[in-house]
Input
Amino acid sequence: MDFEHLVRTRRSVRGYKKQPVPRTLIEEILAVAVAAPSSMNTQPWHVHVLTGEPLERVRRRNTEVMSAGGKVNRDIVTHGEYQGVHRHRQVEIAKQLFAAMGIAREDKAMRQDWVMRGFRQFDAPVSMVLTYDRELDPGAVVHFDLGALSYGICLAAWDRGLGTVINGQGIMRSEIVREEADIPANEVIMTCIAMGYPDDDFSANRVKAHRETVAQIARFVGFAE
Ligand SMILES: Cc1cc2nc3c(=O)[nH]c(=O)nc-3n(C[C@H](O)[C@H](O)[C@H](O)COP(=O)(O)O)c2cc1C
Output
């Protein structure tokens, strides 16, 4: 796919076909994604690719704990509630997704069902758990590096007809993921990426998230005009 078309058409996918993803295809995607830049070429990432029964166990346990009122337990420090413009954008995408899914504002049960889908990583056939070497903590730069890798994975997947959604929800209970995927203690679980063939009948998959304009996010210094 032409690069600009690839970037402009990609969107997060939250509804997947059951169809398994061949391991060779995932390896191909990762081989492209590791071309991402990293600070001083440290390439501090590890990718644990889950499917089948181990992934089902993660989903099951995540859902059990979270629906029993369990608290978020992530390896990385996360910001609390968003405020101001960030909160506004967060609400906007939620509204778009709920509208596409026909979930009414007051329909608490369906909203909760959507949250649970998130904890199940949208029932995607594959979940990639991204980690980095603990010795690099505290890790603003290493987080940046993993962000670059993540976007590379999403684009390389989209280019091959596969959908993804980077999601924090799937690793909300990092200790469960660590245990089921047998992730070593010297790695920090950063995020996960759900992946699979998009279900085109799933209406939330058609949602295109809004972006600010260049004029809103950039300023130019030293230019003639
Ligand atoms: C670090 C990160 C965490 C995310 N976590 C979630 C999540 O838990 N659940 C979800 O539905 N989407 C999640 N997303 C996807 C964003 O909502 C999505 O990228 C954003 O709304 C822009 O939409 P687009 O990817 O379709 O362009 C996450 C994205 C990033 C980069």
